[in-house]
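#lab-general

N.A. 3:47 PM
ok so I finally got the sequence cleaned up, no stray characters, all 104 residues accounted for. can someone with queue access submit it? mine expired

B.Y. 3:52 PM
send it over

N.A. 3:53 PM
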Amino acid sequence: EQWQSLSGGSGSSINYFHPLDGQWHQLWIDAGTSIIDIRGEMKDGSMVLSGNIFYLRNGRRADFRGTWTPLSDGTVHQLFEERDSQGNWQTWFDGYYRPVKGGK
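B.Y. 4:20 PM
back already:
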């Protein structure tokens, strides 16, 4: 995946199933500021991947998780969360993906 945000940020990610550990993996890298490395599996109808986010500018690392939930209207809800220094999960990204009409 190649992506670009409305504010001009950009990056890429690769998603794959690793047959040796039986988990899905995502490695997500933006334009030089952070790396997300998460893995996991389906849980209660959602894909849940967890691991770490690394902030390259200051060397900080935090627990990180992503949840993808398919909805009945065909959309997918994606929620990324980061654990703060007090141990609480904070929303990092909250979005919905919709199929393109006439798309393949």
